[in-house]
Amino acid sequence: MKKDLILAGVGGQGILSIAFVIDNAVLDKGWKFRQAEVHGMAQRGGAVQSHLRYSDKNIWSDLVPVGSADVVLAVEPLESLRYIDCLSEDGMMIVSSTPYINIPDYPEMDEIISNIKKIPKHVLIDSEELAKEAGSSRAQNIVMLGASSKWLGIEEELLKKYITMAFERKGEAIVQMNHKAFDLGRDAAEKYKV
Question: Considering the entire predicted model, what is its pTM?
Fold first, then answer.
């Protein structure tokens, strides 16, 4: 078993929290993993990406080779377009339709969505709406983790275990809100029709 993932978004969207949950779940399974992160500007809004590679066998490189990503998970729609060429032929693109508009010439959303919909295997969900339904728009990253969960090869219980670990210091209500965000994202991805 081997999975190559790219997580993409902008600073402040919780990309590294998603990586924390996946990394720890992988370690809990006794698998090997490699991770490489690139942080954009040293403030909210800069591009952030994380390459995650995990397997039950040794992995020799941190970076996901072009054309071999099993999953590209983008918490920001424009950022997803940077990684289309990273997808494998059978790869899944999972994208939030909620933009983080932080540049003056941000492209038209219709154009971005049109390009995402050209990808044969994709899921496009409104992470902001679902996060608000869960209790906070700040839970968009966990909505997107839930949306991608079917394609990660990791049991839902393990992912939720590390969601709990990531947020338990903030109290039980925050943990439960993030579990709900995960469930809403998972359900939305299951219902999405290409």
Answer: 0.94
